[in-house]
């Protein structure tokens, strides 16, 4: 808030602040650009993209920040973004950007993917994103911020602009107003405005206090000046009509006697020709009396113009020089265009050998989504025939120049020359006698020229080098001032008025540079007096008035300002192509702009904005020029001719300024708006490509946003003309589509490039043919590529450089066709060419390709040798030049060492590849390297810590390339890695990563992944013993699974939920409901017998542990039946065993014995593993216990014990043998009464007890043995 204005004074009580909103809703809509109809597919994609950005909104916030808006929230379900503003400047800039269409394209660039720009350019089907803003809400937000910041400007009912400090609304009475002039900005408004007193009639008083209209943001900003030197707003009658500028003739309506020689004297009815233009908001204009020829200032109110300017362009630009201003400022030369297209057309593939990349041999999945371009995609046979025809044509015109003399990017000059086409300096000698008229004759004669000459530009132009450099014989400005002062005296004495005026002007400029304003004012006034109203050199007159007015403004001399400033302003606005001579010109033009706003003259406002922008650009002040360029374009949108050519160039100039301010989204939007203009030149489209390349995020591929501009440029070329340029454009499009995986479309464009190149140069044709062959290799069409390359070699039109590239590529194609011997011969030939030419990088590539060939042939030793030789060469080259190839070779070598079990060497090469990729900042190479390291530390040489580190880095890369699917997968993996560490801190980290992956899966609408993420979070909460959250997360996981309607997913999820409790240490009973009540019915419904069997087995084990064996019998029988049905003998044996165990717990000995024997019958014979023998020991022991204790049959029990003993002896388990011998000794001693056998078994038991250091063997029978504690796993080991 300005000083001196309190909140209460500004008229907004604290309680009413909520009435004035500062939030705004942006509604996004996907439409067809031409028809404006909704595009459902793009709308759905838009909603999905917004959903992804809803929880990760930093990119949206940054983009909106460039639009001067602050992000509040994203509502993806409604395709809305809510923003807010804190200052008036923010809402002003945002409303300007929105009106210019930048918001649409900024958000379009952000929300669509790279494939969007590569779609077929069908005008009727071209899609776009539109941003709709409620204009009333925008206006309310604007007014709200104005009220908060203090005084603002309104248009009153009497058509005058005044300043006020209070809001206007229902229920508020008349408020004090203040005119938009006079007092400093920070002062409070007076109680009653002075202009209100001048309104005498009641109707006028009522009009003055009627509800005013708030001025638009640009006008609010433009009217904020500290001091207005001429305040005649109240004296000028207000008008409701739009005022137009005038050109041509005017008729005097009153007599006028000029008060000075510069003012015209005329009588009523005289015809006056307007020189330049007459600005309605200014009191003067420059005219020429038709009858007398007198030139002078004419008062605007004393004439009636005969014709107003109808076209806005005719008053913005008063001559051809001004009309071409934007074209010249943003000039994109042919050399710039050549360098740009050489870069975009992939010239490197023509001179550098290609590395055989295995991952690129496959056809990318993007091919399935590739949209066909009309008339493209020739068949291979057709392509080969075209190649042969082109090569024949190439042989016949072998001496053609490589490129035409000119591409014709810029039209020939219209003949309008700049005032300063040639600027010779004045040759002066400081040793001459400057007081001698003869010594200065030539100089004074030149300076006394009545009209303008090109050499005078340096005297007037502020932006040119110092004045001392204009005079070749004088180096110091002080010395120059002294010399010029003497020359002034000579000119004065010799009565050379024009020379005197020019010398006084230069002396005045020198005084201004030293801040001697009063002395400078004297010189300028003397110069005007010397001219005596002579306007022969109009540029001199404009410079004099502008400099003099600037001094009066700085000295705040109101009386002088009233006399000079209006005339200076009229000269600046009305004179075509005037020369900027003072920095203060901006202040004069700002005052003229204010007058135009107050006078309601959009044409004058546009003219003032153009001159202000031109002034600041002339002084290398692009940031100061921005608001005027933006307003000029807005006025053109509202009033200008839709077919005008200058807006396209103006938008590009604006884009360049935004680019310098590091506002890439705005720059790209400017470029896009420029391309949608009805008129566009080839140069502007190529400049658009350059601006996109400078501002679009590159990630790891060229930005696809350049595709529309390249296609437009291609469409502008006339058939048969500009073949060299056509070839480069087609090659650029081919390389672009290739980088984005659309090799089929790339082949079509490169075929067109070949046909265009046939008419230019054989060397160029060969380059295009090589590139075409490589695209066929990448597309998986190696036979076609081989035919093309062989045809080029047979035609003998390739240079030595090109021959090496061709031979190397031929070998790659032969290798992929399995013709190893021929491939090796071609590689050897390519290696010789590279060595002869001394190309180390090409040698390294050939050696690496040789290594890959040996690897394919199974010669790993040779492959290692050649790959190592390639690494030696690559390591001596700059990484920036060959980083991608070097990384690939290092990864191949690391993979080779890993396969040969040399893990340490493999790890070193993987890490080396990773470091090279990081050094070159090549994202794709970094992703390949870090994936190999992740695999190495997870599978080859497991290291959880290293695995976490590299997965974390891979996650950061996924975020940089904006791959949300990969990001979600990596978050899942990292969560599992932390979970495996087994510490509470690791569990909490795992929970954090799980929740982050959950957010991404929700945004991607992958319900299956979302369900598992909810369940994983619940599992971690279970481990952390936060039981109150476990059930909640599991329930949400179930809901997500059920939402999909997929019973298989529900089955998997319910089983996994049960596993959390089944594998846990508490609340295990909860697993029963998940298995029995939810998962098992789904398994039966879907007919998934494997899952049903698995669930029954888990239920049997769980119910047995939960002391409910009777309930477990049902599931055990089902498990047995399913095992028999599936023919799964292992599960059948398990089912019999569990049935036996359940019957044993229920006291059903005979059934238990039956099922144990059935289980034993399914064991393999002979026994293969120790575990099987141990199983025999355990089961026979259990059978012996059942027979002995439950069925009371010691004789049969002894038989089972002896079978167990045999198995234990076979196993060599001494502890088990000791226990079994003890049991046998007990039975024979106490029940079978065989003392001899009892003693034998007892002695055996004692021997094992001594060996095992067990002191006593108890032969007394114990009932607890029936519980068979040795069946516990590990008890017998």
From TrEMBL:
Domain SH3, residue spans: 245-308
Segments of this protein annotated with the region Disordered: 167-201
Keyword Nucleus listed: no
Entry keywords, A to Z: SH3 domain
Gene3D superfamilies assigned: SH3 Domains, Tetratricopeptide repeat domain
InterPro entries assigned: SH3-like_dom_sf, SH3_domain, SH3TC1/SH3TC2, TPR-like_helical_dom_sf, TPR_rpt
PROSITE patterns from the UniProt entry: SH3
Keyword rRNA-binding attributed: no
Highest rank taxon of the organism: Eukaryota
SUPFAM superfamilies: HCP-like, SH3-domain, TPR-like
Protein's name in the database: SH3 domain and tetratricopeptide repeat-containing protein 1 isoform X4
Gene source species: Hipposideros armiger
